[in-house]
Design a protein that fits this description.
By secondary structure, the protein is mostly helical. It has helices spanning about 1-20, 25-35, 45-55, 65-75, 80-85, 95-100, 105-115, 120-125, 130-140, 145-160, 175-180, 180-185, 190-200, 210-225, 230, 235-240, 250-255, 265-280, 285-300, 300-310, 320-335, 335-340, 345-360, 375-380, 385-390, 410-420, 425-445, 445-455, 460-475, 500-505, 515-520, 535-540, 555-580, 590-605, 615-620.
C-alpha cells in the first residue's frame, strides 16, 4: 500500500511539473520512490511511470538528474528488454537524447540503447537508424564528460561485437553479413568520415587540439576492443586516402597518420599503451589473430620503434619512455616467444643491452631506490631457455644480478625466472629454469642465507613477503629434464639447451634433483655455512610466527599487521612444502616422521607451532 500511495504522489507531482514547467522537482519524493522501485513492481505500473517520465523529460527546464536516475532504476532489471524500451510512449528519441547538453540525459539514453546489445534483431534495428548511430559515434568521440564518452564507447563496442567472439576464418569478417552495425559504421560515408575527422589534427573539426587528442585516445581504445578485419582493411578508399591511408583502413590511420607522437609526449604514451595491449593475446583471439596483431605493428615499423627506445637509449628523452619501451619488450617476449627466438639478431641484442646495463650499475645502486627496474622487468619476461643458452655460453645477464635480499624487485625477478611455475610455460623453459637455479646458486652461494634473513625480518615487510614467495616458488618448482645429448643450433631450435652431462660437470655433482623441493632437501645443496638448505628452511617454517611482543619497532597496529602478513605468507610456504614432500617417492621412516611433524604444525594455523622439529630434520638423510 505504501508503494501505491507513493506512486500516486509521484504521478500527481510529475503531472504538475508537466503543466507548470517552473515547478521544482520534489527530489525527496523522487528519491523515496526510487528506493522502493524494484523488480517486483507491476509491469503496468512500471510502464505507466516510464511513459510519464518520457513525456516530461524533453520539456524539463531544470536539472533532469532526479528523473534520469529514476528511469535508470525502472529499466535496470534484465527482464526489461529493448522491446520494452520501444513500447515506451512517447517513444524515446535516441538522437535527441544523445545530442542533449545534459550528461544525465546522455547517460539515460545510453542505458536505454544498451538494451539493444542483447539480440541481433535489436542490433540491426539500431543499425537501420542512421541518425542514432551517427549521434552515438559523435557522442563517443565528442563528449566532454568522460563518463558519458566511456558509456557511449561500451554501447558501440557491444553493438559491434554482438556474437562476434567466434574466431575469424576468412579475410572478410563474417560479421559484415549479419550484424548490420558493421556496415553502418564502416560503410556509411558520413559516419566513417566522422571518425577520421574528429581525430585529425590537420583539419577543422570543431574540437580544440586538447579534445582532438582525447578523441584519438578514445578511438585507440575502441580499436583495441574491436580487433577484426573491417578496422584493419580498406573500407572506403576515397575517404581513407584523404588522410594518407593506403590499404590499412581505420587502424592504419590511427597508428601511422593520426598521432603526433614526436611532439606530444602524452600521445606517445597512449601509442605505447596501445601497442603493448595490442600484442598481448586476447582470450577470444586465435593464435593466428594474435600473430596478425604483431605482424601489423611490424609492417608499419611500430614494433621496431617500440623496441628501439630501450635498445638505443641515447634517444631517450624521458625516463617514462624507457619504462614504456621495457614494458613493450617484456610483453613481446612473454607473449610471442617463438617470434623472439626465431629473430636472427634481436635476442642477442636484448641480452647484450641487459648485460651492459646490469654490469654498469654501481654497487651502491643495488641497495638503493636506483636499481634498474626496467632491466629487471625485461629479464623476468625473457624465455628461460634464452637465458640458459646464454649462460651455456657464459654470457647470461642473470648471473650478473646480485641477490640483494632487501630489494623485493630483485627477489621477485629471481622467483619468476628460477621457478618457471606458470602453467603456460614451454617445456624447454621449465628445463632451463632448473639449469639457471643450480648455476645461479653456485655463483651466489649466499642466496639462501640472504633469503632466509629477509624472510624472518618482519620490520621490513615487503622484503619479507618477497623472500617467503621465493621460498614457495622454489619448493613448488616442477622443472623438466635437460636433453641427454648436445644439439647444435638450427632453424627450428636456434637456442638449444645444454645436455644433462654439461650441468653435472659444471656443478661437479651426481644427477641433480628435477624438482624444487628435492633440490632443497638434497644434502649437497650449498649454503654459506654448508649442509642442507632444509636445515635452515624447516626450522624457520616450523617455529611460531612473530607477534607484536617479539617484532621490532613501529606502532602496534603497523607491526601487528606486518607480523600477521608475514605469518600468513610463511604458513602458505609451509602448506606448499607439505604438499610437495607428500608427492616425493620416499617411504622412509624419517620422511614419514617429518611429514607427521609438518602436518601437526600446519594444523596449528599461521600463528601456532613448536620449535622441536629442526634438529630432527637436520639429521635426516634424504
Amino acid at each position: 500500500m505504501a508503494l501505491e500511495r507513493s506512486l500516486r504522489e509521484v504521478h500527481e507531482h510529475l503531472g504538475l511539473v508537466l503543466q507548470k514547467p517552473s515547478t521544482s522537482l520534489d527530489e525527496r519524493l523522487l528519491e523515496h520512490i526510487d528506493r522502493q522501485v524494484s523488480e517486483a513492481i507491476d509491469d503496468s505500473k512500471r510502464s505507466l511511470l516510464l511513459n510519464q517520465l518520457s513525456e516530461l523529460l524533453p520539456t524539463l527546464q531544470q536539472d533532469p538528474t532526479p528523473l534520469t536516475e529514476l528511469i535508470e532504476r525502472l529499466v535496470a532489471p534484465d527482464a526489461f528488454t529493448f522491446a520494452n524500451v520501444l513500447r515506451i510512449q512517447p517513444a524515446p528519441d535516441f538522437s535527441l537524447g544523445l545530442g542533449s547538453p545534459s550528461p544525465a540525459v546522455n547517460k539515460v539514453t545510453l542505458t536505454l540503447l544498451a538494451k539493444a546489445t542483447r539480440e541481433l534483431s535489436d542490433v540491426n534495428y539500431v543499425a537501420g537508424r542512421r541518425g542514432i548511430v551517427g549521434s552515438l559515434v559523435e557522442k563517443w568521440l565528442g563528449a566532454e564528460a568522460t563518463g558519458v564518452a566511456h558509456k557511449a564507447s561500451q554501447v558501440l563496442i557491444n553493438l559491434l561485437l554482438w556474437g562476434r567472439r567466434a574466431k575469424e576464418t576468412t579475410p572478410v569478417d563474417p560479421a559484415m553479413d549479419h550484424n548490420l552495425m558493421w556496415r553502418r559504421v564502416f560503410r556509411d560515408r558520413d559516419i566513417y568520415q566522422a571518425m577520421f575527422s574528429a581525430c585529425s589534427l590537420q583539419e577543422e573539426n570543431g574540437y580544440s587540439t586538447r579534445h582532438t587528442t582525447v578523441a584519438q585516445g578514445r578511438l585507440l581504445d575502441l580499436l583495441l576492443a574491436v580487433r577484426t578485419s573491417p578496422v584493419r582493411t580498406s573500407q572506403i578508399a576515397e575517404i581513407e586516402s584523404q588522410y594518407g591511408v593506403k590499404d590499412g583502413g581505420l587502424l592504419e590511420y590511427a597508428l601511422i597518420h593520426m598521432i603526433d607522437y614526436k611532439n606530444d609526449d602524452l600521445m606517445l604514451s597512449t601509442l605505447f599503451n596501445f601497442c603493448i595491449n595490442y600484442i598481448r593475446p586476447d582470450p577470444d583471439q586465435s593464435d593466428r589473430d594474435s600473430s596478425a596483431s604483431l605482424d601489423l605493428l611490424k609492417k608499419h615499423g611500430l614494433h621496431r620503434q617500440c623496441l628501439s627506445y630501450f635498445l638505443q637509449q641515447s634517444q631517450i628523452a624521458a625516463s617514462w619512455v624507457l619504462s614504456d619501451s621495457a614494458i613493450y619488450i617484456g610483453t613481446y617476449c612473454s607473449s610471442h616467444r617463438s617470434d623472439l627466438l626465431s629473430d636472427p639478431t634481436l635476442p642477442n641484442e636484448i641480452l647484450s643491452n641487459l648485460r651492459n646495463h646490469i654490469s654498469n650499475t654501481p654497487s651502491e645502486a643495488w641497495n638503493s631506490s636506483r636499481i634498474p627496474n626496467t632491466d629487471l622487468l625485461i629479464l623476468s619476461h625473457l624465455p628461460q631457455s634464452l637465458l640458459a643458452t646464454a649462460l651455456y655460453a657464459e654470457s647470461s645477464p642473470l648471473i650478473l644480478l646480485p641477490p640483494v635480499e632487501t630489494q623485493p624487485a630483485i627477489v621477485n625477478t629471481l622467483s619468476q625466472i628460477l621457478s618457471a611455475s606458470s602453467p603456460q610455460i614451454h617445456s624447454d623453459d621449465k628445463a632451463a629454469a632448473r639449469v639457471l637455479y643450480y648455476l645461479y646458486l653456485k655463483e651466489h652461494p649466499s642466496l639462501w642465507p640472504r633469503i632466509m634473513k629477509a624472510a624472518d625480518t618482519v620490520a621490513l615487510l615487503d622484503p619479507a613477503l618477497a623472500a617467503n614467495n621465493f621460498i614457495k616458488s622454489i619448493i613448488t618448482a616442477d622443472w623438466a629434464p635437460l636433453p641427454s645429448s648436445a644439439t647444435p643450433p638450427n632453424k627450428s631450435n636456434p637456442f638449444p639447451l645444454p645436455p644433462e652431462s654439461w650441468l653435472r660437470n659444471h656443478y661437479h655433482s651426481t644427477p641433480l634433483p628435477s624438482t624444487g623441493v628435492e633440490a632443497i632437501m638434497m644434502s649437497s645443496s650449498p649454503s654459506s655455512s654448508g649442509g642442507n638448505i632444509s636445515e635452515v628452511i624447516l626450522p624457520y617454517l616450523m617455529k611460531p610466527a612473530q607477534t607484536f611482543g617479539n617484532a621490532v619497532g613501529g606502532g602496534r597496529g603497523d607491526v601487528e599487521s606486518a607480523a600477521w602478513k608475514v605469518a600468513v605468507a610463511k604458513y602458505e610456504v609451509l602448506e606448499a612444502f607439505l604438499a610437495s614432500v607428500k608427492r616425493l617417492d620416499d617411504e622412509s621412516t624419517e620422511m614419514r616422521e617429518m611429514i607427521a611433524a609438518v602436518s601437526k604444525r600446519v594444523a596449528e594455523g599461521p600463528m601456532g607451532g613448536s620449535t622441536g622439529v629442526g634438529g630432527m630434520v637436520g639429521t635426516m638423510e634424504l
